[in-house]
User: What shape does this take?
Amino acid sequence: MQAYSIYFKGRYQAAFVFFHSKFTPHYKTMQHPAIQKASIDFLKTLGKHNNRDWFTAHKEKYTDAHNNIIDFASSLLGEMSKHDTIETPSGKASLFRIYKDVRFSKDKTPYNTHWNGGFRRATKKLRGGYYYHIEPGNTFAACGFWAPNTADLARIRQDIAANYKDWKKMLANKTLVSTFGALQGEQLISAPRGYEKDHPAIELLRYKQFILKHHFTNAEVLATDFVTQMNGVFKKMRPFLDFMSEILTTDANGENVL
Assistant: This one.
């Protein structure tokens, strides 16, 4: 059996996540709903005819594709709930609207040409969230902190400054690097206020967002085991999310603030 260790701020805590075993029981496993090619083709065609008249004329195709993505998200939520505590009540509730808010956008096309949604982690102890994005040539799973509030960002930077060796070790974890590459997110051009430009962790201190992302090929998206693939990627995000949760639920002395 395979397992990996979760790293928490200078210490390892064993966490056994079983990916496979030669002792697999001989019973029929449940088949997860696959994303249908028609659901992807709808997005491609919508990209060429992104207007209300065409969308209205093809509403039935949209409904079929939308229901397919709901089924996918519902199955994904069921699998994720086995290894994390999710607040989002259903796959349908996780899915974002295809209708765009164009009030403040230069692009006035009325519809998104992708399916996307997110899962919120439950309780104040579990911070961060999961995001899925399904688009021809640009499908990915992501997690992290897209817009941390002022207090959270200050606490994260405080911990980076004090424990940057732990951060660098966590971000250098082989499983994390092989699955997600480097930490992503917007960064300041220079040092944040209150920190020296030559701080040994200045590259981390400049981050305003803290995101992990993994891309999937078009073939992977249409595979019958795509729910399993995406769930596996989300599962590998847990060490990062738990690391961040520990920081955001404690003060600089490690005392619980909840």
Notes: Strands lie at 4-8, 11-15, 115-120, 129-134, 139-145, 210-216. The first helix runs from residue 37 to 48. The CA atoms of residues 142 and 213 lie 4 Å apart.
